[in-house]
Amino acid sequence: MAAVLPKVAGRLTGGAPLAPLVWFKTGGAAEWLFEPTDIDDLSDFLADLDPAMSVMGLGLGSNLIVRDGGVPGVVVRLGKAFAQVERLDDVTLRCGGGASGILVSSTARDAGIAGIEFLRSIPGAVGGFVRMNGGAYGREVKDILVECGIVLRSGERRTLAPGDLGYTYRHSALPEGAIVVSATFRGHVGEPAAIGAEMDRIAAEREASQPLRSRTGGSTFTNPDGHKAWALIDAAGCRGLTIGQAQVSEKHTNFLLNLGGATSADIEALGEEVRRRVKAHSGVVLEWEIQRVGVAA
Q1: Across 82-93, average pLDDT
Q2: Catalytic annotation, residues
Q3: pLDDT beyond 80 at 4
Q4: Tens of pLDDT along 244-277?
Q5: Is 69 in contact with 296 (CB distance < 8 Å)?
């Protein structure tokens, strides 16, 4: 297989363990892990790659369950070359697809750009925010996105406006295998001190209410219309529920935890048991917000 893969300028690793790269610290290996040096390297690689081989983007590894059998095909991970944040004008930032929400929001604060503070609260990178229409505290990526740059599975580069992305709640219509390499965000003029105070408030609120220091994937299920997922889970008696070494957080019931020895199968099975109990108790069907990828062991 190695002989037929395209040559790259970056790093291409066969059988690369993914557990160290995801927040749950579970799961199998990528058949191939590709870390491109720049957009040309990524575009050329995808253009020359066998069209039958699947491609998946990996950001900072939050909001993701990698199944124990690993991920077939190529996993693309954007490194430092894609983690830059550049100020374009008084209210606009251009961000690489690998830039973290903390870096983006901090850069906005220092530049006096308000309206982007909510990204401080979302674990992950710009590529994931754009793909999932990430949001918190009443704001979503669609509210600040001007355009994004993507590389399609074919290697073709495109620039898309928000209207091209088919945004709904925590979902976009980005094609399978497309990699988000950049995004331009627009806020409004604000005072750095006030922006920083709001970011501090958000950080303190998250610390108080969410199990941020645990092995978790972030918010597990989307909020159904008219409901809060955590309240439905709590009412169904799932607080602290365990399967193997996977547990429903006692601090915030819409978070699943790896207590130290969980497998991805444990975590996914626990999520499905939560869904079963919530449906039996309230009739509401919870939908996964965490992405589940790969194959079972």
Answers
A1: 97
A2: 170, 219, 289
A3: no
A4: 999 999 999 999 999 999 999 999 999 999 999 9
A5: yes
